[in-house]
Request: fold
Amino acid sequence: LARPFQFLNLGQLAYLGQSEALAQISVGSETVRGRGAAGFALWRSVYLSKQVGSRNRILVIGDWIKTRFFGRDISRF
Reply:
């Protein structure tokens, strides 16, 4: 017999574009909320913390830096 399903809400993240996001994260019994640039920082920190290894974290950070300088559209070259 399986145990009954129990949902665990760890929070909600929504990327809005142009370096803005909404974030609501449950940390223990506290809820951390952010919007705009603060939400974007929370969104990115959670994204990095969920990466499997440090190599992936470095690759993701490198991609974010390249995107900041050159943009997302590679067809412009």
